């Protein structure tokens, strides 16, 4: 706030001097100082943007036109490259707001993969729920493979259906929803027309498939309905039930919920209207 006050003070002095019909060296120094003060101003959180007025926060009022620092949207095309357009209510600006911790090149590739997937959310609530889970599962799209891989592969070798693991293949978490277990790889592959049981790593290496498997899981497990109503807790219970009811993953759930609250701001949704904790 101090820097904003100083800026307006100097701005008044400079303008007043110009009104008097002169522009001396002192005026020039004052104008240069304004730019230096602006350039030094920054927000304490890397996810916050500094608005044109010098305040910090998220959403279009801060990251939109006139944004001075942080993951700005504005006219700078933060997704870089192609990566424009929209996927229903998810445009490149909202996507950049959600996935604000990766560089623009990586973000463009991921946004293009979302576009190519063919999925369109029904409303902003569904988009926020889906992308919040994606952010949490992939560490903000920094990884398409579970961090414990490949060492944790054997623990996913068996599952609840008659589908057996292919020899030498592991089914640890991959893709936008960290797809795991032979059953899910097989069923997702059947839906997409790709043999994922024999080629599980496609879920990590092919970004379109990385998105499509997440969408498949989202639909196959009936997450769409509660997501469209903004019932984040119900979708967490489907995706990772051990986080619910104070289970072993409860602390993990709190991180997930914090992400969801932030992602809602990227769609100007405000605070959740349904308790997001399961």
What do you see in this structure?
The chain contains 12 helices and 4 strands, in the order ααββαββααααααααα. It is mainly α and 278 residues long. Among the domains are: 41 residues; 151 residues, Lysozyme (Orthogonal Bundle). The strands form 2 sheets. It has a two-stranded antiparallel ribbon with strand order 1-2. The chain has a two-stranded antiparallel sheet with strand order 3-4. α7 packs across α9. The relative contact order is 0.09. One of its GO terms (molecular function) is chitin binding. It comes from Rotaria magnacalcarata. This is Chitin-binding type-1 domain-containing protein. Keywords: Chitin-binding, Disulfide bond, Plant defense, Signal.
Which descriptors apply to this entry?
two-stranded antiparallel ribbon, globular, Endochitinase-like_sf, Lysozyme, Glyco_hydro_19_cat, mainly alpha, disordered N terminus
Concise structural overview:
The protein has 278 residues and is mostly helical.
List the helices and strands and how they pair.
Layout: H1 2-19, H2 25-40, E1 49-50, E2 56-57, H3 60-63, E3 86-87, E4 90-91, H4 92-98, H5 104-117, H6 124-138, H7 182-192, H8 202-205, H9 207-220, H10 224-228, H11 232-239, H12 250-266
Antiparallel strand pairs: 1-2, 3-4
Organism: Rotaria magnacalcarata
Disulfide bonds: 49-63
Protein name: Chitin-binding type-1 domain-containing protein
């Amino acid at each position: 706030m101090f820097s904003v006050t100083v800026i307006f003070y100097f701005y008044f002095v400079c303008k007043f001097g110009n009104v008097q019909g002169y522009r001396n060296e002192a005026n020039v120094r004052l104008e240069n100082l304004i730019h230096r003060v602006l350039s030094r101003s920054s927000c304490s959180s890397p996810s916050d943007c500094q608005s044109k007025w010098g305040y910090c926060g998220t959403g279009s009022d801060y990251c939109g036109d006139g944004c001075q620092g942080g993951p700005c949207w504005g006219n700078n095309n933060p997704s870089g490259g192609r990566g424009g357009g929209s996927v229903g209510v998810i445009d490149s600006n909202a996507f950049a707001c959600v996935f604000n911790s990766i560089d623009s090149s990586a973000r463009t590739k991921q946004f293009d993969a979302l576009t190519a997937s063919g999925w369109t959310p029904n409303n902003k609530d569904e988009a926020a729920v889906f992308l919040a889970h994606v952010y949490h599962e992939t560490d903000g799209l920094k990884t398409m493979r579970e961090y414990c891989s490949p060492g944790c592969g054997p623990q996913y070798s068996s599952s609840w259906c008659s589908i057996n693991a292919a020899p030498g293949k592991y089914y640890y978490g991959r893709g936008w929803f960290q797809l795991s277990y032979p059953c899910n790889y097989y069923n997702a592959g059947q839906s997409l027309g790709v043999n994922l049981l024999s080629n599980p790593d496609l879920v990590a290496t092919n970004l379109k498939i990385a998105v499509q498997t997440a969408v498949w899981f989202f639909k196959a497990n009936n997450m769409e309905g509660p997501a469209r109503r903004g019932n984040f807790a119900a979708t967490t219970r489907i995706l990772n039930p051990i986080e619910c009811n104070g289970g072993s993953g409860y602390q993990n759930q709190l991180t997930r919920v914090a992400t969801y609250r932030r992602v809602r701001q990227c769609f100007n949704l405000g605070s959740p209207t349904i308790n997001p904790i399961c």
